[in-house]
Amino acid sequence: LLPRHLDVAVAYTLLGAVVGLAFGIFSRNYMRTSEAYRSLRQEQTAHIPSIMQTGETDGVEFKSSLRWDMRENRINRGLEKVIAKTIAGFFNADGGYLLVGVDDDGNALGLEKDLSTLKSADLAAFERTVNDIVSKNLGGDLCPSIHTVFARVDGKDVAMIIIRPAPRAVYMEDGKSSVFYVRSGNSTRQLDVREALNYARSRWA
Fold this sequence. Notes:
Layout: H1 4-46, H2 48-54, E1 60-63, E2 68-69, E3 74-75, H3 78-91, E4 96-100, H4 112-116, H5 123-137, E5 146-153, E6 156-163, E7 171-174, E8 177-184, E9 187-191, H6 193-203
Parallel strand pairs: 1-4
Antiparallel strand pairs: 2-3, 4-6, 5-6, 7-8, 8-9
């Protein structure tokens, strides 16, 4: 028989080896996943100029800004509701792409004005603001169903919010009412109560 202290030493050695092996496998898989995710983001970013050229469709919408009112030249937080409405419409349909910093004709306007309204005037803060808009207006559980990528187009930053179809019916709070939006053609349409219930029943049954 081995001395008791040697048994303990062997046990700890084996445990260390198992933990080390598990950590090595985790690290390798994490690196692979991170690299795949980085490649995917780069691929999605590369598509932004061509999506802008194609124009708005049932799966693509352009917005000039996130919260900056181009006409009145000031912050207008009401525009965040417009963003939430559009995202809700994509959530309730087949998903899509919402490009911000782009006019109706597909020209790059940039994000400079929007960024100037944030505590940290950078793209990471812009992405966090998008997630906050979704969380506040539609539900925090939906944030994993979107992600935002950026591209420089004609020397200006453009954001593309990629929206996957939601796993549930998405309603937007408007005062004391819950409003249901869905993408229809190249616009976002509000459904009445009966339409919304019928749509949700067939969509998520």
